[in-house]
Amino acid sequence: MVDDDQKLVEQSILGDSKAFDRLVEKYQKLVFNLAYKMSRNYDDSADITQAVFLKVYEKLRSFDPKYKFFSWLYRVAVNESLNAVQKRVPNEQFNEETVVGQDSPHDRVDAEDVSQRVQEALLELDLNYRIVIVLKHFQDLSYEEISQILDIPEKKVKSRLFSGRMMLRTICRRRGIA
Amino acid sequence: MIEEKYIDLIQQEIDKRNSAGETAELQKLLQTNVEVRQLYEDLLKMSNLMDTAEDVEPPSTLKSSIMSQINFPSRQKSRGPAFVRQIAEFIETRSSFQYAYVFAAGLIVGVALYSLVAVHPATSSAVDPESVSGTIILGTSTAPLTVGQSFHTKDNKTAVSLIGQTKFSKNVATIDFIIDSNRPVNIAVNFDAKALTFSGYSQSQGALGERRVADGVFQITNQGKNHFVLVFERRSSDPSEIVVKADESGSVIFEKTVAVGIPESDSRNR
Predict the structure, then answer these.
(1) Which residues contact B61 (CB under 8 A, 6 or more apart)?
(2) How distant is the alpha carbon of residue A134 from its chain centre?
(3) Distance between CA A49 and CA A34 in Å, rounded?
(4) Could you tell me if residue B174 is left (phi over 0), alpha (psi between -120 and 50 degrees) or otherwise beta?
(5) A144 in helix, strand or coil?
(6) Longest Cα pair distance anywhere in chain B, in angstroms?
(7) Interface size between A and B, measured as CB pairs under 8 A
(8) pLDDT tens by residue, B84-125
(9) Global ipTM
(10) pLDDT, tens digit (0-9, with 9 covering 90-100), for B144-200
(11) Would you call B4 an interface residue with chain A, using a CB distance cutoff of 8 Å?
(12) pLDDT given at position B135
C-alpha cells in the first residue's frame, strides 16, 4: 500500500493527474472524517479536505519518500483541521480547570444516538485533547502514529488521551449521556 | 486518587495494549477497588461508543472539485532514448535528493561539455552556443533550446571583457559566456534560486581557485580567456534574471544583468 502510494506520488509529480486522482480517491474519506470529527460541520469539512489536497499537491515535490505518504497527509490534514477550527467562532471549550465540578446531568438521550451525542460532546474539548481522541478512536491510530503526526512524545499522547477521556466523561455526565 | 500506574493499566486495557499479565493485574484490581472499577467502566463504555461511530460520506462532488482546482502540467513525452527518460524521471521524482541528483547530472553534463569545448577551444570572442545544443538532458523535455539574450560588455580600464548568451527550454536554462582577463578577477554569477536550480557547469580551461555554488551564486576566479557554460533546471516557466559580476579585490569591474526565459527577439527590446 505504501509502495503504491509512493508510485502514485511519483507519477503525480510528473504531471499524471490520474495518479493524483487515485490518491484523492483513496484518502478523501479519511481526511474528510478527520475534519468532520474535529469540526462537526459538513461544509467546513469539505473545505478543509479540499485545502488539504491542494496543499499536498503543492508540496508534493518536497515530500520525503523515506516517510509514509499517509503520515505526511495526516499531518497536513491535522494542521488544516486545527487551523480551520480555531478560526471559527470558538465554542466554550473545556480544559482540565473548567471541567471540575460541572456534573449536573440533564437532557436525557435515546440509546441509539448516544454515540452521536458523545461526538458532539467532543466539541467542548480543548483542541489539544480533541485531536488526540479523534486520531485514536475515529482514525484508529496507535500511540506511536499519533506521536509522529502531532510531533509530540508518546508519553504526552497517553497523558493527553487520558486527560481528554476524563474531561469527556465529565462533559457526558453533565449532558446526561449514558 | 488513583495511582498513575493503575491509570496506565486502565488506559492500555481500553486501547488493547496490555500484556496478559497486565490484564490479569488490572482484573484483580477491579475486583477490589471500586473507584478504579468505576473509572474503567466509564472510560471503556465511552471508548466503545466512539469506536462504533460510523464514518460520514464526503460529498460526491468533493473529488472532482479538488481535481478541478489543480493545474496539472502537461505531461511531456520524452522522445529520447529510454535510459535518458529513466534518468530524467528518476531525477524528477526523487524530490528529497533532487538537488543532489540534478547536481550530479549537471556534473556529468559538464564533463561532456568540457570534452566538446576542449576539442574545440574558444579561440575568438564569439560564443558558439550551438556547442550546448542537444546535450542537456534534464527534465522530460528534449525540445531544442531557445536562444535567449546575447550580451557583451568590456571594461576599458581593466580590459576585462564578457560576451555570452542565454538559452532555455521549458525545464532547462543555460548561460554560456567567455570571460577574458589578463589578471585574476572574481566572477560571481548570481541567479534567482527560487526560479533556477544550479545543475552543473563546464569550462574550457582551468580556472583559478575554488568553484563555489551557494545561495543563488556561482563563484569562480578567472584569469585568461575562458569559456563557461552553466546549466540550470528551471523551477518555473516565468522569466528570471542572471547577474554576472566581475570584481578585483572587492572593486567592481562590471555587473551585467541578463534575462533567462525570454526569446532573443523579445530580449532585444528590453
Answers:
(1) none
(2) 5
(3) 9
(4) beta
(5) helix
(6) 99
(7) 118
(8) 455 555 555 555 555 666 677 677 777 766 665 554 444 444
(9) 0.81
(10) 778 888 888 888 888 888 888 888 888 888 888 888 888 888 999 999 988 888 888
(11) no
(12) 41
Smallest CA-to-CA distance from A6 within A72, A58, A50 is with: A72
Angle at B233 between CA B185 and CA B169, to 5 degrees: 105
Q: Please tell me the predicted confidence (pLDDT) of residue A102.
A: 40
Alpha carbons A27 and A73: distance in angstroms, whole number: 9
Residue contact A28–B62, C-beta within 8 A:
yes
Q: B44 to chain A, minimum CA–CA distance in Å? A: 10
Q: How far is CA B221 from CA B110, B125, B198, B203, B248, in A?
A: 18, 19, 18, 12, 10
The type of residue at B74 is S
Instruction: Mark the ranges of chain A whose per-residue pLDDT is less than 70.
Output: 1-3, 89-112, 178
Residues within 8 A of B (CB atoms), A 14-73 only: 14-17, 20-21, 24-25, 28-29, 32-33, 36-37, 42, 45-46, 49-50, 53-54, 57, 60-66
